[in-house]
Amino acid sequence: MPGYPVRIQRKRTKGWKMPPNTIYVGRPSKWGNPYKTGDKACDARCYRKELEWYLDKNSVISKKHEQILAGLKKLKGKNLACWCPLDSPCHADILLEIANRG
Fold it and tell me: Is there a contact between 67 and 26 (Cβ–Cβ < 8 Å)?
């Protein structure tokens, strides 16, 4: 039985390949984080803001938000790859959590 999907840090290392069963969710994919990032404090705030954005059923839904919510089923059971360091907050963690809920 395969384990729970995980976040993969995408790399530019020669010979590195994205593992099987992995979808790239960084920019410029349709899954890319809509918030500006850069420093760890901002990244943590952006992470929280994005989680609230996904979970707020009363928010004004942009076209991008609508596309993401409609496509979450495609992410279920998949590892998600982004450029964020694994020890930093990342929108891919949010996508993993939401896509793989009960």
Answer: no
C-alpha span between 12 and 75 (Å, rounded): 23
- β-pairing verdict for 7-9 and 22-24: unpaired
Buried b (16+ CB within 10 A) or exposed e, 55-92: eeeeeeeeeeeeebeeeeeebeebbbbbebeeeebbbb
Question: If you ran DSSP here, which 8-state letter would residue 29 be given?
Answer: S
Per-residue pLDDT band at 57 (split at 50, 70, 90)? low
pTM, rounded to two decimals: 0.75
Distance between CA atoms of residues 86 and 32, nearest Å: 16
Domain count, the chain: 1
Give me the domain span that covers residue 60: 7-99
CB 90 within 8 A of CB 64: no
